[in-house]
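Crash report, auto-generated. Payload:
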Amino acid sequence: MISGYMGKLLWVNLSSGEIKEEIPDENLYRDFIGGYGIGARILYDRQKGGVDPLGPENILGMITGPLTGSPALGGARYQAVAKSPLTGTWGDANSGGFFGPYLKFAGYDAVFFTGISEKPVYLFIDNGKAELKDASHLWGKNTYETEDVLEAEHKGGRVICIGPAGEKLSRVAAIITHKGDAAGRSGLGAVMGSKRLKAVIARGNMQVTVANIEAANRAREEQIEDLKSSGFLERFHEYGTGGHGDISAHSGDSPVNNWGGIGVIDVPDVSGLHRDVIISNLDKRVGCWRCPAACKGILKAGIGQYKYPAGNHRLEYETIGAFGVNCGNTNAESIEMASHLCNAYGMDTISAGSIVAFAMECYENGIISKADTDGIELTWGNHEALVAMTEKMAKREGFGDVLADGVKIAAERIGKGAEQFAVHAGGQELGMHDPKVAGHQFAGMPSAAMYWMNSTPGRHTQAFGRPSFVSHLNNAMGTCMIIFMWPTARGPYIQRVMTAVTGLDRSMDELLKAGERIANMRHAFNLREGISPLEHYIHPRVYGDPPQKDGPLAGVTMDIKEEAWWHLGALDWDRVTTKPSRKKLLELGLDNIAEELWPPQETGPQFGPGS
Amino acid sequence: MFKCTIPMYGLPREITELREVDVELSDGAGMAEVVAAIRERVPALEGPVIRPGENRLMEGYKFNINGRFYFEGMDFQLKSTDRIALLVPMTGG
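Recovered output after restart:
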């Protein structure tokens, strides 16, 4: 077995109750590394195209990487995978916390669920053994309560779970761990809810083998030194990603007023989002498993207008953006309350905040009124309305039920021209980074196409095109894209740490090739669904059509078709159909996909003069 | 020569506490001249935004001129009718 891996996958059939282990071929690990790389290969092979994302044939997986639970910096992550009920495409979501390492300590690299349970259940994985247990006493409980009950009952375990939003099949439902670390995107909480799977808890004392522990530890020490000497570690520990909400609100980074506003004009005073306000109610700083940055935080109970409980997580940037200036709101306390509701009920904050912004714009334009919104006045910046509607969405109550499946579906339900305000890409709400301001910098050159063309459209953390390979590699390794991948004096550390942990001495080119293979695998899943990313909808505000007239993005329109054309060429994917070339698929070892996408041409008798 | 008003966004605004900076530029001013003018007008930007001792932007910073981005290494010829702003690199999470 290659070091870093536990060498086992767990399979749970929720319809029959059967649980079995699989020892996969080592090539699965070599070629696809881990995380959603392995997930994409397995789902492509074991499920057919066209399944109902909320039906029994959709496979739900939770997968770690070789560096999860290892000395690698930020090696705490796992990904959830399934066909997405929000977009109908490939779906994945990435989470920190402790569950990833604990799944490995329990003996498994991954756990996959098929079928649908008759009754609510949870899976208890205990040091190499797994058991489905009755979860009827947990069904209906929020994620905090669920985690508390299960971790008390199975001491030493760590939990991932859904809240009522996932149980009620909200297509923006998340899978929550550590009471606020989310596998948020792609609506995978609804997939878990459709299976009546309330939670997974893992515990164990098995070791993650490391091929060269001295080298791995040395790399870890040097990387920490590098991050300290640049000042990054301290800054990140102090504020996490919550440190730039006010700066981003005015720099062109954050979308404003449902992607249609300009920060410096529409929300001129953003002092309410300053980093010191964001940490003003902090109780303590916490982090993911073994991370020296410990960039997260736990708040004391809210004592102002919003009485959230103690233990609420300090805000992350995406939440600040989505419930902040994208709703014209600069009241940090209200964002903390909305965040708590999303974490407790199990909803993705990016989508939830974006849905509220959409509803606000519909309200401001008379498409919906108080009669529709249960009396809630959804005006820009009305933070009380924001919190009230978030709670309704989380519970699927009243107008919240209309909104709970994302902006695209909400617009279809509302009609009356609401779709003009539904800002999404391929059905998913977008991350809180206006690609127009990044230009060449965020996802490589060029970048506005990333939301449009990503295999999970609407994502901002994976880039598109060749720049996505390192992103997929990092995710598949199970490391944090911030702390492990931050530019440092002696970095990057990828090749060094992967060699030290796995014992496989692979060049950076080989590792990036795995990243490219993963990009092609996710894309092949979508092609089999009949989905080409060029046909995804993307709201014109995202690429600046028409351009803003003022502010930092004045005059900027991104030519996303040109960008896509450029990237497709670099990927060797057809510029019309987006099919990877046969040559590219064979080069990547994706022979069966090459045969499916490029079946041999039948040559029959030649008819013509003289035949 | 013409007077040019350059809006500041994000970190430059935070450092300088200025919403915009007025500089005097010659017709057809290029990247180096514009950066030099800002550097002279707002010394606090040297280090975080402008490379110390040079008339060059730090990595990631850029100008938005009439909707097009110009990074260090690129050049332009500014006219009095052009609209220019100083933009920061994006941060994530």
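Post-recovery validation: The longest strand of chain B covers residues 2-7.
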